[in-house]
Amino acid sequence: MKKLLLVSLLFSTFTYSQTYISGRIIDANNFPLPGATITTGSSDEVTITDFDGFFNIYIGQGESITVSYIGFESQTRIVDNTDESILFILAPNVTELSEVIVSGFQGGTVKALNKQRNDLNVTNVVSSDQVGKFPDANIGDALKRIPGIAMQGDGGEARTINMRGFGAEFNSVTLNGERIPSAEGGNRIVQLDLIPSDMIQAIEVNKTLTPDMDADAIGGSVNLVTRSRPQEFRFSANLSKGSSPIREDAMNEQLGVVLANNLGKFSYTVSGSYNRKDYGFDNIEFEWNEEGDQYEINEMDIRIYDVERLRKSLSLNLDYEFNPQHYIYFKSLYNERDDWENRWRLRADDPGDKGENTYRVRKLSKGGIDNDRNKNTRLEAQQSSQYSFGGEHFFGKLGVDWKASYSKASEERPDERYIRFDQKGVDLTFDLTKRKLPKPIFGSGWNDPSKAKIKEAYFENKFTEEDNLTFKIDFSLPYGESNKKKLKFGAKSQTKNKERINEFYEYDIEDQLGVELLSDVPFGNAQPPNFIPGSEYNVGLMPTVQYLASLNMTPGNSEAVPKEYVAANYIAEETINSAYVMSVNPLSDKTTLLFGARLEATDISYTGNSFDEETEQKETKSGSNDFVNILPNITLQTKISENLIINGAFTSSLARPGYYELTPYEKVDSEDREVSVGNPNLEATVSNNLDLMAEYYIGSVGLISAGVFHKNIDNWLYRFTDSNYTWNGLTGFDYEQVRNGKNASVTGLELTFQSKLADKLTLYSNYTFTDSETDGIEGRPNAPLIGAVSNMFNGSLAYEDDKLFVRASLNFSDASADKLGDEKWEDRYYDDQLFIDLNANYSLSPSIKIFAEITNLTNQPLRYYQGVQSRTIQLEYYSYNWNIGVSIDL
After folding, report:
1. DSSP letter for each residue of 21-60
2. Spatial distance between the Cα atoms of 112 and 131, rounded to a whole number of angstroms
3. Is 77 helix (H, G, I), strand (E, B) or coil?
4. What are the beta bridge partners of residue 259?
5. How many helices (H) and strands (E) does the chain have?
6. DSSP characters for 671-685?
7. Which residues fall within 8 angstroms of residue 596, CB to CB, at 6 or more apart?
């Protein structure tokens, strides 16, 4: 009892006659207003509302509070009772009614810009209203609209992002502030096509960090904020149907639902999303060889993919407020994505002697077992989930936030099957008139099933899982004259575990099948009627998926092939302990200085395998490492005027190597003299960053901004190769290992212009330029940084009145290096891409809308090239996609 009395007296010395109160700012539709500015009557205290419109501020009994928000009338109120939460309902500013439509896209822009302009660091904020006005099914596609972000696609959707010239491995993606684990096999990259865009309330892109944020984000950090703390009952739903016409009868369907209510102290939000898509992609690939000063095709693939994608998501968020000073919450999000795929591939390789114009043709069918889960297909099942329990408390002037969270991601590919038939000596030449699209010219007999001999059949199981357990606590305390300064400090502990378990078996075709030729098994024409690259690319006759699924493939009648999986399997354990301290100091009414530092201590323990393909000798290997990074931070914001804000920052950030890169594996082929090894001694890549950004806000929805940034990077990662390496006393090995380079740099420029062009017409545009170079690769001075995109542009033009909204949008990103070869001509590049999308909605009533959207009007393919842009490595088409639907918001 004495201890409790002592604590109470201690906190009472902080408070005097003042205390913290909490409140909320909403609009007339009961939606939160994030980024609102709250000041006390004496202007000694200033705070900003969070994404849910809540705020806490230090105030005395009888003192006034003023709330201001762009596009809305300011309000001032006297605080008579500091024990109760205060609710402000703001009305649109009558002088700006012609400029702002509160409930539409422009209303979403108002909310985003209010939040963005009040952040001390360099950010971009996108509200759910804005996301909903673009035809983006997943978060990756929504992110490509933001300045400085380019996406890389897979399977026709945005899967990963490049930010400010940095590939996905240099950026982080968090959910409500906590890192999302990766379902990828060997790295930390989050697959963004796993997360539906309609499950997110807001997207916050932090391009500069503050010490209270995780430091592993050299390019930047994307924070996804889920819905929580509703003001009143809300039900919304949207239902749509559509098609991807690349395949006949390929239909899409989508359903999203939100149910939320406030029951006084307790509130809940339940969200769900269901999205099913039938589609496919048409693919051709080439491998080039250097012959003197000429480049010839050594290998060609023609690939057909038929895909059914099912994406499901569910979120439950619970909130309980004991009183204005004490609040706890539970937040959760579960996502899963299943891809059922059948694939047919014709490969022409092993060319004959020069002048013979013959190749070996290999026909491969890929699928899966016939059961309720695989359904005769190759199944890729991904899951991601996060569960958090936390609280926010005030003890006098001391604020305490705490959180415990568990997250998990996995990918499973069960019973994946392949069967292959080969035919040698097939006449084949290539028309290289257009090197971007080399056309094959087959001789007679290439598609004769009686000439294609069975070569092999095999099946495999793949499984990857990562789980993270996190505990964190943050403290905040005002200090100094009139409590204008704010001290914030905290600690965090993260435990990460990741493993990959693969198996690979070769089916005993001689004893189990008793067939020799393709003509001996059920086969059919796998070629779709309108193959986009052209009718010259034809996979021809292939074994049916039903036949492949019916084969009795089991480990008992098959032989394990260790060279295909042993060295790939690993177990990773990481512990990251961090602590930080920072101080926010108003230097004047217009200038604020933030300074501090973050310490992150990383301890890793990895287990991998060494395997020699010739001797089949296996050995388990372990490795460990630890490193400490101290990351200083200085951020300065000056408000030259109410509308002109300048942000400057010197920050430090890092990127940890990929899990598999740190694994002490060894994959050796003594016969062919090839070896690839991991490197547990890799250090984290560290970047020192300089940023300067000027933003001028025009009215309620306008913004002109210009910014420059420079990043100086140490210990960047590259793939070291040596074609004459000595391994275990033997010379002449081709050796490969990821190593730390010396340094690299990225310099860039960002420009944004968005404004009303007329009463109902709005333009949104942004451009980013980056220039990168690296040092440390022998014989390759100033090689480009992997993933660095030089030019990125977004533009959209929108019309909106009280019922109709129409938008046309454009997204362009330049080519970027994907992989560096031994020589410059071998470098692999991800080609530039241009997307044009259209979408519209019409309000039948205040709560019911119909909408339509069409994406990828340019039929933009996924394309890689080698050395020069005209030398195609991969070209993959998806066609356009359309949807129509209805939405209800009660």
Report:
1. EEEEEEETTS-B-TT-EEEETTS--EEE--TTSEEEEEEE
2. 11
3. strand
4. 235, 270
5. 7, 49
6. TTTEEEE--TTPPPE
7. 210, 211, 488, 580, 581, 582, 583, 632, 633
Rounded to 10 degrees, the C-alpha dihedral 28/30/34/37 comes to 50
Cα gap 21→42, rounded to integer Å = 16
| 3-class secondary structure, 796 | strand
d(CA 556, CA 459): 12
Strands (E), 814-859: 816-819, 828-830, 833-845, 848-855
Closest CA to 736 of 747, 723, 750, 749: 723
Nearest to 234 by CA among 859, 861, 847: 847
- With contact defined as beta carbons under 8 Å apart, do 663 and 680 qualify? yes
- Give the SS3 label for residue 801: coil
Sheet (strand 86-90) strand order: 54-60, 18-27, 86-90
Residue among 332, 334, 321 at smallest CA distance from 388: 332
Residues 622 and 208 sit within 8 Å (Cβ to Cβ): no
Give the residues of the chain that fall short of pLDDT 50. Answer: 1-16, 95-105
Asked if 712 and 687 touch (Cβ cutoff 8 Å), the reply is yes
Dihedral angle at the C-alpha atoms of 106, 112, 115, 119, nearest 10 degrees? Answer: -130
Residue range 802-827, pLDDT digits in tens: 899 999 999 999 999 888 887 888 89
Instruction: Report CA Rg, the chain.
Output: 29
What tens digit of pLDDT does each residue of 742-770 get? Answer: 888 999 999 999 888 888 898 989 999 99
CA distance 78 to 552: 78
pLDDT of 94 reads 53
Q: In angstroms, rounded to a whole number, what is the distance separating the alpha carbons of residues 308 and 310?
A: 7
**Which residues touch 4 (CB under 8 Å, ≥6 apart)?**
none
Instruction: Determine the Cα angle at 39 with ends 33 and 45, to 5°.
Output: 125
Query: What does the pLDDT read at residue 97?
Result: 40
> pTM for this structure?
0.89
| Cβ atoms 165, 770 nearer than 8 A | yes
Question: In the Cβ-directed half-sphere of 578, how many Cα atoms lie within 13 Å?
Answer: 26
546: how many CB neighbours lie within 10 A of its CB? 12
Q: What's the rounded Cα separation, in Å, for the pair 488 and 221?
A: 20
Pairing between strand 617-639 and 674-677?
unpaired
**Distance between CA atoms of 556 and 654, rounded to whole angstroms?**
48
Q: Which helix (H) or strand (E) holds 207?
A: none
The domains located in the chain, with CATH, are 18-99 (2.60.40.1120), 223-889 (2.40.170.20)
Other CB atoms within 10 Å distance of the CB of residue 584: 20
Residue 349: enclosing H or E segment and its boundaries? strand 326-349
Helix (H) / strand (E) element for 142: namely helix 139-143
* Residue/partner pairs of 27-31 with CB below 8 Å, 24 or more apart: 27/72, 27/89, 27/90, 27/102, 27/107, 28/89, 28/90, 28/91, 28/92, 28/102, 29/102, 29/103, 30/230, 30/231, 30/232, 30/234, 31/231
In 656-790, where do the E strands start and end? 666-669, 674-677, 685-698, 702-714, 717-727, 730-740, 743-758, 761-775
Opening angle at CA 331, ends 326 and 334, nearest 5: 175
CA 166-169-173 angle, to 5 degrees, is 95
Question: What is the C-alpha separation between 602 and 215, in angstroms, rounded?
Answer: 12
DSSP 3-state percent helix, strand, coil across the chain (nearest 5): 10, 60, 30
Long-range contacts of 798-803 (CB under 8 A, 24+ apart): 798/105, 798/133, 798/761, 798/762, 798/763, 798/764, 799/760, 799/761, 799/762, 800/101, 800/104, 800/105, 800/106, 800/760, 800/762, 801/101, 801/760, 802/101, 802/843, 803/842, 803/843
Q: Is 28 left (phi over 0), alpha (psi -120 to 50) or beta?
A: alpha
pLDDT for the residue numbered 51: 77
3-state secondary structure of 263: coil
